[in-house]
Design goal:
It contains no helices and two strands. It is mainly beta and 69 residues long. The two termini are 19 Å apart.
Amino acid sequence: MTNLELLPTDQAFADSPDAGDPVCTCSRCGEPIAEGVVPIRVWDTEHGYREWRYHPACLGLQVPALDDC
């Protein structure tokens, strides 16, 4: 199990676009999150809406291919 740690350098966003949308970028690496990738999302709604979204690999997660399931 991996514990998610928000880093001070992670970018927070005020929107929540779908994966594949050009503005759906990773909070950690800044690269687009492609269609077909399921981003890991974290929300803060207590201090106004903020979202952090990540490629699973940017959080150290290994995601098996569908063929491996």
